[in-house]
Amino acid sequence: MKPKVGLYLCALLLAGSLGLTIGCTRAPNDAQVAGTVQSKIYADPNVQSRQITVQSANGVVTLSGYANSDAERATAAADAAQIEGVKTVVNNLEVSAPAQAAAPAPAVEPTAQQEEPAPAPVRRRATRRRRAPVANTESASNTMAMNSAATSPEPSEPTTPPPPPPPKPVVVPSGTNIAIRLIDPIDSEKNQSGQSFRATLDSPLADENGNVVIPAGFDVTGRLDEVKSAGRFAGQSDIIMSLTRLSVNGRSYALQTNQYSRKGSSRGKATAAKVGGGAAVGAILGGLLGGGKGAAIGATVGAGAGTGVSAATKGQQIVLPSETVLNFQLQAPVSVIPSSTGPNAGRQTLN
Description:
By secondary structure, the protein is an alpha+beta fold. The protein has helices at 2-24, 30-43, 70-81, 134-151, 268-312; strands spanning 52-57, 60-67, 88-95, 128-129, 170-172, 177-182, 186-187, 196-201, 205-206, 212-214, 219-228, 238-248, 251-254, 260-263, 319-320, 325-329, 334-336. A hairpin with a 2-residue loop joins strand 1 (52-57) and strand 2. Helix 2 (30-43) crosses helix 3 (70-81).
């Protein structure tokens, strides 16, 4: 009986040892595998993303979420393949910008039973890679462009300098002398009262402080207030004129000046002497020819001859040719816009 009891005890001890060995080498469950893979990936310094979710089912580990680059995506799959109990790695990680990534799933805290076992040689299996959808990358690019446009300051439009202030008018005081140079000739025998004539300013105009405000050369308009031509028998020629307007750089200013007057010499006395002398000579000739009656006829003939001489000689006419310089004086002040250059500035002159 004793040998049988010994054999029985040995069998019991052997069965217990086998049970303990089997219990110690039992494969980890899905939760342990997922937690170990998660810890392995997050511990890898080459994987910066914390938006990776790990799921395990019968040795098939699925990675989902977002990686920052293709290299980071491949590194995470390689880390998962090194864990004991992992048979296949399905890499569903998408490469996308952090702004488009979903919120990271909470990490699975390893329990006492999920401690990482000693590394064992595991055959690396090929992983299946999926390319990120084009729509997501385009959306991310559009979003980044919109954010950049929103944060970048708008270019400021170039500001144009304000226009210079308009020039202030300056007063040319009353009593200022105005010298002009005629453009149109004036003839007492040809011109009539009320006609206008043209001239140019021959000397500059200054303000009350002596500063030149209007250079010489600008246009001046005048009026013939009265024109008289010398008659054939008596009277004298007469011209009276004044200035009415000054034109400077497209602006016109009314002028009030004194009247310039020019008179011709009279022919009245010479005409009477010639007529009387002709009558006396005619009377003498008539007496010699036929006494008293002849004298009367001679006087009449002589008077007619004298009248013919007078009619042939008119009184002195007044002629003011072009380029004649005349002087006037302002009778009322005039307000003008100053001009720094005359109308002939920049024109080439002939020597």
